[in-house]
Design brief:
Layout (H helix, E strand, L loop, with lengths): L2 H16 L5 H13 L12 H6 L8 H18 L6 H19 L27 H17 L3 H38 L4 E8 L6 E8 L4 E8 L7 H4 L3 E4 L2 H6 L4 H9 L4 E6 L2 E6 L3 E2 L2 E2 L2 E6 L5 E8 L7 H11 L9
Antiparallel strand pairs: 1-2, 2-3, 3-4, 5-6, 6-9, 7-8, 9-10
Helix pairs in contact: 1-2, 1-5, 1-6, 1-7, 2-5, 4-5, 6-7
Length: about 350
């Protein structure tokens, strides 16, 4: 999730743990810092944008390593707050602020390696977009109200209310995702399409409009469609309109030995696509973005004789004017059946 959400979550958790044992502003401030610390790994450069992508949310997001780190962090927080006799309570606040960060990240589709060093398999439920005001605002308002009211009982209740509402929203996102997944499977079946992989994720800033990506059994093509919870009832065969796109298997075969290509294919859990344009070959992680623009897209080779890999890969993702997409998003969320901008 975004840094504001993580800071607000860390602050809210710390306030809930410390209660009236310290000044509310102290707990909120230290909790906000602890809640954002795991994302400092973005400052580490691995010399290649693909490595920077696949190695993000690794050790700094692992529950085991964060638990170990929480011990000196809790002691440091108690010392800075000049409350060393309460270091156990500060340690608990530090630990919860740290581990709730990757647990929240695990609700996004990116992938969080929670179980390092025992397993490097990334966890990504994909029921939340990386920025969602409906999640962040209850937390933020609860914390700000608590800081403003100080140690009054109402302050702690408002902070707790923010935590409860934001957590309930996470639960709602998982329920909504499961519902849309059922709708997508039924719609694909009614259209006579068999999918090898199915991805159902929310579009930007909401959990009302969902994007569906289905990779066919042969793996040579994929289909993309959108479904809003506010869509009018329709027959299964027309409930979701899918557009078909080639996946680029021939290009993948040409670059089968390319390390970056292999890493994206594995990291994306099979939701990748490749395209050649003006003699330049790109690979994209289809989970983040939508046709034709993806946040994580990389130029990996150029068409020469023989094919010349680009080392390191070039980051070419996240380009384009967001205006038409946002305008479409606002109308499509409300159930207006509009084709997506291409």
């Amino acid at each position: 999730m975004d840094s504001l959400s993580q800071a607000a979550l860390g602050a809210a958790v710390a306030v809930a743990v410390m209660q009236r044992r310290t000044a509310v502003w102290k707990a909120a401030a230290f909790g906000a810092v602890a809640g954002t610390l795991p994302d400092l790994d973005v400052l580490i450069s691995h010399g290649d944008p693909i490595l920077d992508m696949v190695l993000h949310r690794a050790e700094t997001h692992a529950l085991f390593w964060l638990t170990l780190f929480s011990l000196p962090l809790g002691w440091a927080m108690a010392a800075l707050a000049r409350e060393r006799p309460q270091w156990r309570r500060w340690w608990l606040a530090a630990w919860l602020a740290l581990i709730t960060h990757p647990l929240l990240d695990a609700f996004t589709v990116y992938g969080t390696q929670l179980f390092l060093p025992f397993s490097n398999k990334p966890v990504g439920l994909g029921s939340m977009f990386i920025i969602d005001p409906a999640y962040t605002l209850p937390l933020l308002l609860g914390v700000l109200a608590a800081v403003a009211l100080g140690r009054r009982a109402a302050a702690l209740k408002l902070n707790a209310a923010g935590l409860v509402l934001s957590t309930a929203y996470l639960g709602w996102s998982a329920v909504a995702q499961a519902h849309v997944t059922d709708v997508a499977r039924e719609s694909l079946s009614a259209q006579g399409y068999k999918a090898d992989r199915l991805l159902v994720i929310p579009t930007a800033f909401n959990t009302v409009l969902w994007r569906v990506v289905a990779v066919d059994e042969a793996g040579s093509a994929y289909r993309e469609g959108f479904y809003s919870l506010l869509d009018a009832p329709a027959p299964l065969a027309t409930r979701i309109t899918f557009d078909r796109f080639e996946r680029g298997n021939a290009l993948a075969a040409e670059l089968a030995g390319h390390d970056g290509v292999r890493r994206i294919q594995a990291f994306s859990k099979g939701f990748w696509m490749m395209k050649e344009q003006d003699g330049r070959i790109r690979i994209a992680d289809m989970r983040m973005g939508q046709e034709p623009g993806y946040r994580f897209a990389f130029e990996v080779a150029e068409r020469h004789s023989p094919l010349a890999p680009v080392q390191p890969a070039r980051d070419v993702g996240g380009r384009g004017d967001p205006g038409p997409l946002l305008a479409w998003l606002g109308r499509r969320i409300q159930g207006e059946r509009l084709p997506p901008p291409r």
